[in-house]
Amino acid sequence: MSKIVIACLSLALLTLSSCGNTVRGFRKDSVETGHAVDDATKRALKATAR
Question: Is the pTM of this model over 0.85?
């Protein structure tokens, strides 16, 4: 393989792995946001029930 092909494959690999990390991070943030909203809703309902 030529050096240009190796460089292009390395760049593609880095780009794809960055996208994968971004998607995983977005999913984790979304789940944590959902839990926080759920907890806040439960606390608000509990406070208004008193």
Answer: no
